[in-house]
């Protein structure tokens, strides 16, 4: 049934007739046991809270399901033994996706050296492991240039570049845009990636003697928190304070938030396809030579809405 070229047409016809008569359906569990596989993929996230991770998971799971594979998910947030948990998961799956800075490069290299197929998502490349990222620096610089064109000169950046390779790229692009215009680059106001963290960060910003005129946020949830805090303080967005985000989640569209759209589902779907390729190329019956290491940067797009204001003549 799987390799018709290995048998004569007559034998294949008899087997298929028996399959039809008995109503036989191949057992995925039995096949996995025979091949020494688990029929499951693992995916390691920093966290599972928020629309960004939900979209990536949906893209990943949809492709994995079409390929006949179940998915085991591990979130490392708040786990003191994250590295040990990830290593243990690697022994229970046929391949694994590791997202962001969930574990160190040493753990990634240990898993790869052990033979478990790996794909990295939204983190810097590691040795011989496939890597999928989205563009951060180019779009962040474009966002900074757009805000500068509005006449803004006092900025704040809300987010922690040390906590995420994506945010590090966004801050680098934002800073490059300001430097090119001769505008001072603010130090990042570090916070978590949720609405409440954004609200708290905004309250701290608004207590400063010199208030920023534009707040660039690491993601949409932080931006929505900043937007809410500004409104609660009696400020008008964008007349008193411009606010921008990143991701383009559904809530950002309803809030009129200027943001950068990134292909979240495509990120997860691509990771699932690449991991399947790595798993099948080392299949037990007829393993294929290992393909070259792949690295891809998916494009992002500046999406302008009302939260950054409108252009004025001469600006």
UniProtKB/TrEMBL annotation:
* Highest taxon, organism lineage: Bacteria
Q: Which InterPro entries does this entry report, sorted A to Z?
A: HTH_LacI, LacI/GalR-like_sensor, Lambda_DNA-bd_dom_sf, Peripla_BP_I
What is this protein's name? LacI family transcriptional regulator
- Keyword Ubl conjugation attributed: no
Q: Can you provide one Gene Ontology molecular function annotated for this UniProt record?
A: transcription cis-regulatory region binding
Q: Which Pfam families does this one have?
A: Peripla_BP_3
Keywords attached to this entry: DNA-binding, Repressor, Transcription, Transcription regulation
Which residue numbers delimit the HTH lacI-type domain? Answer: 1-35
